[in-house]
Structures are given as C-alpha cells and as structure tokens.
Amino acid sequence: MLNLTVTEDEQGAGMQQLPINEILFLQSNANAFIDVHTKNKQYYVVGSLKFWESAFEQTELNFFRLDRGVLTNLDKIRCINTSLKVAYFDYPLKTDTKYCTISYGRYRAILNKLPPELPKIEEEWL
To answer: 120-121 and 79-81: which strand pairing?
Structure first.
C-alpha cells in the first residue's frame, strides 16, 4: 500500500503517513499548499498540483484532474450532478457530503472514465 506524507496544518504540525487509497481529492489552495481531502479530515502537502498529477500518473492510481485546481481519485466518486457538473463522494447525498466541481471542458472525458452505472442526478443540490 502506498502512503503519502501529510501534515495536519500548513505549518507542518502533525506529520503522518496517509494511505493514498483514502484520498478523495487534492485541491490547490491560496497559500501555495495542496489540501488533501479524505472522507473525514483535511491534510496538507507541499508541491504543485501538476507535480502530484505527474507522480500519480507513474502509478496504478486512478487520479484525474477535474478542473485546474482539483485532482480527484476517480475510484472514490459515488455520484455526479449533471446539471451543476459536481462530483460527490457519498451516495445517497448527505448534508456533510464532500464534493468538488468538474470543469466544463473536462466533463465528457471524466464521464468516459467513470463506470456507466454511476448514479447521476440533476437536482440543484449542494
């Protein structure tokens, strides 16, 4: 199992090994860090999203860029909102369901990479 060294805050406190298969998505933030989202927590790593995209491409991991600021573990997506172009990581949806946006330009490519039986909704829900 592959792990990623992450911290619990941007100052480097709480360094730990996180199993990569627990990652839902990585998101660039305004402070030049990458937010690493799991189902219940958020961690931080340094580097660019481009670096992590390249690193994951060298493995068998199924990460894909959803938009310019989000790199997602496609295996963790549980539902797509076709109206809003949003990927959800729980289904059925709950009030605390994590989600990320999908760029219009990458939407079709992402749909082709996801299982056809993946639930798709059209409601305006966030």
So the answer is: parallel
